Amino acid sequence: MSAQNPYFRKRPSASLTGALAVFALAACPVSSLAATPDQAKAFSERASAYIKQVGEKKASADFTRPDGGFVEGELYVFCYDRKGVNMAHGGNRSFVGRNLLHIKDPDGAEPNLLIVRMGFEHERGWVDFKWPNPVTKRIENKSAYVIRTNDVVCGVGYYKG
User: Fold this and answer.
1) What pTM did the predictor assign?
2) Distances (CA, A) of 122 to 20, 70, 118, 155, 159
3) Which long-range contacts (CB under 8 A, 24 or more apart) does 6-9 make?
4) pLDDT digits (tens, 9 = 90+) for 35-56
5) 32 neighbors 135 (Cβ within 8 angstroms)
6) Mean pLDDT on 11-32
């Protein structure tokens, strides 16, 4: 075949293919990749430590702000008091100040009630439910690691897809 033939294409070298793969990964923010259980748990533990460091009021404000350091793609912090009043929500700031204890998921479960119970009865643990994914805008299976810190239960979840 001749190099003049427009149908002749030389295969890219392995180094070029590798360079393109690295560029593609660098161009896509890490937050666009699906989160893992370990990431959600570590994020939740970081949020708990932050509450202890700065107090519930400042932490709740920072958790809710998109630029507060606690929102990364599908990972965000949410917090509830013992009665189910939302104290912080990095995925939907309109929830803050509202009692969401008996909001039901599509299966009839009350995820916020489960979250509050897990935190106040067991101090920490995993809760499974369905919730809108702020990245995909679809209701998806979610698992959240929640921790009671002082007088709030805060958690971070990952979407199981």
Assistant:
1) 0.78
2) 48, 24, 5, 14, 23
3) none
4) 999 999 999 999 999 999 999 9
5) yes
6) 37
